[in-house]
UniProtKB/TrEMBL annotation:
<keyword id="KW-0964">Secreted</keyword>
<keyword id="KW-1015">Disulfide bond</keyword>
<dbReference type="GO" id="GO:0007596">
    <property type="term" value="P:blood coagulation"/>
</dbReference>
<dbReference type="InterPro" id="IPR014716">
    <property type="entry name" value="Fibrinogen_a/b/g_C_1"/>
</dbReference>
<keyword id="KW-0732">Signal</keyword>
<dbReference type="GO" id="GO:0005576">
    <property type="term" value="C:extracellular region"/>
</dbReference>
<keyword id="KW-0325">Glycoprotein</keyword>
<dbReference type="Pfam" id="PF00147">
    <property type="entry name" value="Fibrinogen_C"/>
</dbReference>
<dbReference type="InterPro" id="IPR002181">
    <property type="entry name" value="Fibrinogen_a/b/g_C_dom"/>
</dbReference>
<keyword id="KW-0175">Coiled coil</keyword>
<dbReference type="InterPro" id="IPR036056">
    <property type="entry name" value="Fibrinogen-like_C"/>
</dbReference>
<feature type="domain" description="Fibrinogen C-terminal">
    <location>
        <begin position="16"/>
        <end position="228"/>
    </location>
</feature>
<protein>
    <recommendedName>
        <fullName>Fibrinogen C-terminal domain-containing protein</fullName>
    </recommendedName>
</protein>
<dbReference type="InterPro" id="IPR037579">
    <property type="entry name" value="FIB_ANG-like"/>
</dbReference>
Length: 230
């Protein structure tokens, strides 16, 4: 578990890039509605994203959205995951490279949200969230957990999939997990160990133990924003 700030820059990203676009959704006015906006993290070209201005705290950048019966096939290649796919107004993946560029410009937190079959939403939040570089395999770095369930990302669960924190990203054409086979072949790209406790990037299978043990959550959402933990 990563408990120290892991940032090469300042703790709070600058309000806008040289192009005039904000570096993330946290720099929108609090009165702005949720919707499609253009941001430009440091070192990145401008990116179209969905900004969530309704979730607690406002100013969240949506980096993943999935629905159980999605039309998206999440078994995409490394390159497709790198640059992102889908529709920001619906199911999509921002792009692993852009997750790296977004989270390397400051200290970020993350909120994972799932909705179960009873239409009840649950969340897990980590006060530090960072995706390292492609050269390192886009490993996941997480901080301290809070939420309305149990921690299945930074705690080790040997009878399930092991752990997700500090795992490299795996896709169908780039196996970086700790399993003898390739976990991504079964579902899609994710930070696998042996293989998963939690899985949000899959078609007809959205899993978070305690919320949807059989992979039958109806939807998932991953939100990020700067944190003042450090």
């Amino acid at each position: 578990m990563l408990l120290l700030c892991a940032s090469t820059g300042s703790a709070v990203p600058t309000a806008s890039s040289r192009s005039g676009f904000p570096t993330d959704c946290s720099h929108l006015r609090k009165t702005s509605p949720s919707g499609v906006y253009v941001i430009q993290p440091a070192g990145s070209p401008p990116r179209v994203v969905w900004c969530d201005m309704d979730t607690e705290g406002k100013g969240w950048t949506v980096v993943q959205r999935n629905s159980h019966d999605t039309e998206i096939t999440w078994k995409q290649s490394w390159t497709t995951y790198k640059y992102g796919f889908g529709n920001v107004e619906g199911d999509h993946w921002l792009g692993t490279e852009y997750l790296h560029l977004l989270t390397q410009q400051g200290t970020y937190k993350v909120r994972f949200i799932v909705r179960n079959k009873a239409n009840v939403t649950h969340y897990a939040e980590y006060d530090i969230f960072r995706v390292e570089s492609e050269a390192n395999g886009y490993p996941l770095r997480l901080g301290r957990f809070s939420g309305d369930g149990d921690d299945y990302l930074t705690s080790y669960h040997p009878k399930k999939g092991g752990i997700h924190d500090n795992m490299k990203f795996s896709t169908t054409d780039r196996d970086q997990d700790q399993y003898s086979g390739n976990c991504a072949n079964s579902y899609g790209g994710w930070w696998y160990d042996r293989c998963q406790n939690v899985l949000l990037n899959a078609k007809n299978h959205i899993l978070w133990p305690g919320f949807c043990d059989n992979g039958d959550c109806t939807s998932s959402l991953i939100l990020v924003k700067p944190t003042d933990v450090c």
